[in-house]
């Protein structure tokens, strides 16, 4: 479904990604792991076109999307939830969802209800400005916004980072349920135990390169622990 080949990008003259390749097959959850600063967020931003690729290719459902804008990729079915809960703080929860619906390719209001079914905790909060939500609720809203576009692939950057434990579990369960419905997911996750519970496959980055990839069961290997330990 998503194919990344030899991807290169960075910030100005600073190169961060050096030829990253990975595949997310339809319906699979692939976890991108690696220590702080190895390029995980840069990879997701480049896959979505938030950052331009300076080399390599991103293919989604057989179509080369490397030069498309992020909104064009969203319309093709790539949903992105960047790090740090991307919401409009002054807008109500409902308006946050409506803005996304208006920008979506389908415009079907039923998608709002579907997204709220995944995150029922948001239902009593629809009138509240997003800026007044807790970190965990904002993360749920950010994910609900991505779901409103009815993505075929969901790209999540550390959805549990800095979030209180009770909500981490809800977010984990939501990811699990979405995966069970057949949604393909590309997930950046620091915690090995969470990756072990959720992933079908994994990719480990180090200094902007893929240093190991494989099926989730190999996450138990000693080498994987070594690559992830600080
Ligand atoms: N906006 C930016 N301008 C310049 N350099 C940046 C920018 N964002 C990130 N970098 C640098 O790019 C490298 C990769 O950062 P990136 O955020 O992709 O790593 P990461 O693996 O996602 O780390 P973390 O887990 O800490 O989020 C780091 O050296 C970082 O300092």
Automatic annotation (TrEMBL):
SUPFAM superfamilies: P-loop containing nucleoside triphosphate hydrolases. The keyword ATP-binding applies. It comes from the Bacteria. InterPro entries: AAA+_ATPase, ABC_transporter-like_ATP-bd, ABC_transptr_urea_ATP-bd_UrtE, BCAA_Transport_ATP-bd_LivF, P-loop_NTPase. Residues 2-230 form the ABC transporter domain. GO terms for molecular function: ATP binding; ATP hydrolysis activity; branched-chain amino acid transmembrane transporter activity. One of its GO terms (biological process) is L-amino acid transport. The keyword Transport applies. Keywords: Amino-acid transport, ATP-binding, Nucleotide-binding, Transport. Transmembrane segments: none annotated. Belongs to the ABC transporter superfamily. This is Urea ABC transporter ATP-binding subunit UrtE. It comes from Microbispora catharanthi.
